[in-house]
Design a protein that fits this description.
Oligomer: heterodimer
Number of domains of chain B: 3
CATH topology of chain A: FAD/NAD(P)-binding domain
CATH class of chain A: Alpha Beta
Radius of gyration of chain A: 23 Å
Distance between the termini of chain B: 48 Å
Strand order of the largest sheet of chain B: 5-4-15-16-17-14-18
Strand content of chain B: 15-25%
Structural class of chain A: alpha+beta
CATH topology of the largest domain in chain B: FAD/NAD(P)-binding domain
CATH architecture of the largest domain in chain B: 3-Layer(bba) Sandwich
Number of domains of chain A: 1
CATH superfamily of the largest domain in chain B: FAD/NAD(P)-binding domain
CATH superfamily of chain A: FAD/NAD(P)-binding domain
Structural class of chain B: alpha+beta
Shape of chain A: globular
Strand order of the largest sheet of chain A: 6-5-15-16-17-14-18
Helix content of chain B: 25-40%
Chain lengths: 482, 502
């Protein structure tokens, strides 16, 4: 993807200042050093890294992060080995629906169409005929997660293994070091300090930031990656925050991280409780346990508090908020790093052609707000069976639900984080079933459907059995890369 | 699972919409206990303006199992690589909107960004010279696209231009062979259930009373059921798309067989030219506020390449969309669902889409309202996005030579379109959405073809030096030219694959 030969024309924006110093800041810095000419200066505010929204020790990422990693030339195998991270293939979900069985939300596709009929309708038909079928039994990612076997698939689309997608269980501290080093090597510079004063002109353009040390940092364009503190975006004219507590009332998380040498599961475990939810996720040498809840009367000193919501205008003037500065969505569906990474990709797609340009910001904000609201709705849906459900769903989510219940078809909108199978897996987890299935499925005999799903499963099982365990794959890669 | 499955489906109206629906349902629902009947009258002609198509039609044909050469021979079809637009941005302009992209991204930055940068700095050839399908179309040549993604021949798709009347016949024999029962008759009355207001039955001039669970209204502009009986209402879009009449006439082919459709802007509308194997379809779409029927007919006849083969066929319409395309137990398809002029050959595609969606949201006798509501939401989006794309053709003009062009050039356009145009004009940003049939390449073709040239380009593209860019662009341009020249002539290709009418 890197071109960059010959003479470069001067860039209209020469100095980009990034405020934060967490993962959001360094990932932005790394991408910009690779793709944009000009100076990249990071004002490192140090301290706890809540640049993505909620500070986590291990971030279970969605498969889409690989797109940004490819763009900025990060080899994910090397990253996993260097940072003691591991791979992730989905989420185990317990206590979210009427069933006591643990449900699984796998990454990638589930099953395979039979002629024109999509797989979920075949399963619905089997159930309508009195049979039972669990979608996760027809997902390569779920079968891998169950058996502990995994190796990233890099072959062609003809193998059933290509239907699997994977994310990472990233050790955030080491990931930050990894991308910070890469950004510094690529020419980013760093100033340690806390912004004390933002100099904004009458046209809502920042000219410089004064740090508490007195140092003044000038810039043409500013990224606010300071997390919910919003050290820069919060100072812009017209700043306001849209609070989503009405639908997502949790506002406190307690965290514990313990060392572990056990082989890490290939999935995060997300469990519903009366008072909130709990998540367990492992990487090569640690396990992190999180407990999200709505703050009790008594303030708990050991907890991190937050408010779900977004700022109304992520990009205003020459200031763009990325990560937790733009929005906080409790990480029930592991969206934090995905949202930051896609914000960075979107910035590269809509890079301002001059300092005071507004055209890119208008389109950037339109796409971003669509994306944030869709991701928020996916988070809200988790609580459909809990006390929060007494709050009415936002309109678009209500339509998704009623369209799915009526037809078994998932309504999708612009800028989705989650595609058809992700929504179906969650609906299934919650015990929300469609009232009908694809009419065309009735034209296929029971026997043909049974044979098809059995064949899908056996092809998948055979393919999965050829894979190494994750542990042995990691050992091999460690040796290769050593 | 449907508790009370539908048993009887009646399609009201033959023509392209009716027979496409009958053929698709008879195929997709085969082996099930549906009785599908289609009522049409030999006396009522069909509107056959939808003779030019978009590539999606190939998936429809494939799904039904048609042999392409056989289908082409029977419908006297030609291949279509795009549409040539003449006199739209300015009088004397010509550009082709191809079924394919222009160039490819360089250094992660879209091709049109580089093109517009060079356009502003040193000047550059028209963007069509960087598109193989446009070069092939201009040269009157055709070949199937290649499956090899590294080949320049993989950069395009194709559609057909065919005789819609013959296509309806072709579909009719297919549907009848799969059990669809055709009933001759004109609808004289519609009976509604008193409580629900659902359509219960239709009466014909042959004395038949035909009842059904689901009615599909393919009766054309009038919308006999959706409007005539159910009074669903119509969103009028004439303030954006003011053309309201058309006059059509075929003639024989006088020139080479072009693998593209032509749309030539007139004083108060535009004239289509659609070359088939045996004749050329011509028509003039115009706005009756600005030109008389006689003058419109004279303009059309004056531009025919040969003597007319039939009498003039006069049509009237109101651009817009039925407020609900699915209301109660009636689903409207084709012209009864809405009318968007055939400037981008969208009519047949919208029918195809409606059929697919109806199958996805197929009702049972419980008539779950969420089915119709989601169906309508999705169809509304499609119609609105096609609408915006059509409006762009009129609005993006410098023409000020007639009152018609002055009106469309200065009229307020929908906010969604305003935003899109602004983004492209300012910085070459292509705004697009998940739903909507026209992809980035189509929007770029029309923007640039009608002189909306980005005033600024993607700054990330500046990382490539102009001299280097020029070398790459020149290579692409000569590759497109060479590849186009290597193809067979369109007429020869049709013969080679045995798709010529016997």
């Amino acid at each position: 993807m890197r071109i960059l030969y010959g003479r470069s024309a001067p860039m209209p924006i020469d100095r980009i200042v990034i405020v934060g110093g967490g993962v959001a800041a360094w990932l932005s810095a790394l991408a910009l050093t690779l793709k944009v000419t000009g100076m990249i200066i990071v004002i490192d505010t140090e301290g706890i890294d809540d640049s993505l929204g909620i500070p986590l020790a291990i971030e279970p990422t969605l498969p889409s992060l690989a797109d940004l990693h490819a763009l900025i030339e990060i080899d994910e195998d090397n990253l996993v080995v260097q940072t003691g991270s591991s791979f992730g293939l989905g989420r185990a979900l317990s206590n979210w629906g009427p069933s006591e069985a643990v449900a699984f939300h796998p990454y990638g596709e589930i099953g395979a169409n039979l002629g024109p009929v999509a797989f979920q309708h075949l399963i619905a038909r089997i159930r309508a005929d009195g049979g039972t079928a669990n979608l996760a039994n027809y997902s390569v990612a779920a079968l891998c997660a169950q058996s502990g076997r995994f190796a990233p698939y890099r072959g062609n689309a003809r193998s059933v293994l290509s239907t699997m997608s994977h994310g990472l269980h990233l050790q955030i501290d080491r990931y930050r070091h990894f991308i910070k080093n890469a950004a510094l090597q690529n020419g980013a510079s760093v100033v340690v300090g806390i912004p004390e004063e933002i100099h904004v002109d009458a046209k809502n353009q920042i000219s410089s930031i004064r740090l508490s040390s007195g140092q003044i940092v000038m810039g043409d364009f500013f990224l606010d990656c300071s997390g919910p503190a919003r050290l820069v975006s919060g100072k812009m004219a017209g700043f306001s925050f849209e609070d989503w507590s009405e639908w997502l009332p949790n506002n406190e998380v307690k965290q514990s991280v313990t060392p572990s040498t056990a082989p890490p599961p290939l999935y995060a475990h997300v469990e519903a409780h009366d008072q909130g939810w709990q998540r367990f996720v492992s990487c090569q040498d640690h396990v992190e346990e999180l407990f999200f809840t709505r703050r009790a009367q008594m303030y708990d000193a050991g907890a991190y508090t937050f408010t779900n919501g977004r700022i109304r205008t992520p990009w205003t003037g020459n200031c763009l908020a990325i990560g937790g500065a733009a929005a906080v969505i409790e990480p029930i569906a592991s969206t934090q790093l995905h949202l930051a990474a896609s914000a960075i990709s979107r910035l590269l797609d809509l890079f301002p052609h001059r300092r005071d340009s507004s055209v890119e910001a208008i389109e950037y904000n339109r796409r971003t707000i669509e994306q944030l609201e869709n991701a928020r709705d996916y988070a809200i849906l988790h609580f459909a069976n809990q006390h929060q459900s007494k709050h009415r769903f936002p309109g678009r989510l209500a339509n998704r639900l009623s369209a799915y219940q009526a037809s078994g078809r998932v309504a999708l909108y612009d800028e989705e984080t989650f595609e058809t199978w992700d929504w179906i897996a969650l609906f299934e987890t919650l015990g929300i079933a469609p009232r009908r299935y694809d009419v065309v499925a009735d034209g296929i005999s029971r026997g043909a459907i049974a044979e098809h799903v059995e064949r899908v499963r056996s092809v998948m099982l055979t393919a999965v059995s050829t894979l190494p365990t994750q542990q042995s794959y990691l050992h091999t890669r460690r040796d290769d890369l050593a | 699972m449907p508790n009370r499955p539908i048993e009887n489906i009646v399609i009201v109206g033959g023509g392209t919409a009716g027979w496409m629906t009958a053929a698709a349902l008879s195929h997709m629902l085969s082996g099930q206990k549906f009785a599908i009947q289609l009522i049409e009258s030999e006396e009522i002609g069909t509107v056959g303006v939808g003779e030019a198509t978009v590539p999606h039609i190939r998936f429809f044909n494939q799904k039904l199992g048609f042999n392409e050469a056989d289908f082409m021979a029977k419908t006297k079809a030609t291949f279509k690589l795009g549409i040539e637009f003449c006199n739209w941005g300015r009088k004397g302009d010509s550009y082709i909107h191809p079924f394919g992209a222009f160039g490819e991204s360089i250094g992660g930055v879209a091709f049109h960004q580089h093109w517009s940068r060079m356009h502003r700095s040193t000047g550059i050839y028209p963007i069509e010279e960087y598109s193989l399908p446009v070069m092939a179309a201009r040269a009157g040549r055709f070949a199937y696209p290649s499956a090899d993604p590294d080949s320049l021949l993989s950069t395009y798709s194709y559609a057909f231009q065919f005789d819609a009347g013959l296509y309806a016949k072709y579909l009719r024999s297919y549907a009848e062979a799969r059990g669809v029962k055709r009933i001759e008759g004109k609808i004289t009355d519609v009976a509604l259930e008193s409580e629900s207001g659902f359509v219960q039955s239709v009466q014909t001039n042959q004395g038949d009373s035909i009842s059904a669970d689901l009615f599909i209204d393919c009766s054309g502009f009038r919308g006999l059921l959706i409007e005539g009986a159910l009074q669903t209402g119509y969103d009028n879009w004439q303030h954006w798309l003011p053309c309201d009449r058309a006059v059509a006439v075929p003639c024989s082919i006088a020139g080479p067989l072009t693998p593209y459709t032509r749309a030539t802007a007139q004083d108060a509308g535009w004239i289509w030219r659609i070359p088939l194997q045996h004749r050329v379809g011509n028509g003039h779409v115009y706005c009756s506020n600005y030109i008389s029927d006689d003058a419109a007919a004279t303009a059309l006849l004056g531009q025919l390449e040969s003597a007319p083969l039939a009498a003039l066929n006069q049509l009237r319409f109101v651009t817009g969309k039925r407020r609900k395309q699915w209301s109660k137990n009636v689903v409207a398809m084709g012209l009864s669902a809405g009318f968007l002029e055939p400037l981008e050959s969208t009519s047949i595609h919208l029918i195809q889409l409606a059929i697919g969606r109806l199958l996805e949201f197929f009702p049972d006798k419980s008539w779950d309202p969420a089915l119709a509501s989601e169906y309508n939401r999705l169809m509304d989006l499609e119609y609105e996005r096609v609408r915006d794309f059509l409006i762009l053709h009129y609005h993006a003009t410098e023409r000020d030579d007639t009152p018609f062009w002055n009106y469309v050039r200065t009229m307020p356009v929908p906010d969604t379109l305003e935003h899109k145009i602004e983004m492209f004009r300012e910085r070459g940003i292509v705004v697009n959405y998940r739903d909507g049939m026209f992809l980035d390449a189509s929007w770029i073709a029309v923007y640039l073809g009608q002189r909306i040239i980005p005033q600024n380009n993607d700054p990330l593209g500046n990382a490539i030096a102009e001299a280097d860019l020029q070398v790459q662009l020149e290579r692409l341009r000569s590759d497109c030219r060479a590849a186009a020249e290597g193809l067979s002539s369109h007429a020869d290709f049709i013969r080679q694959i045995g798709a010529h009418a016997h």
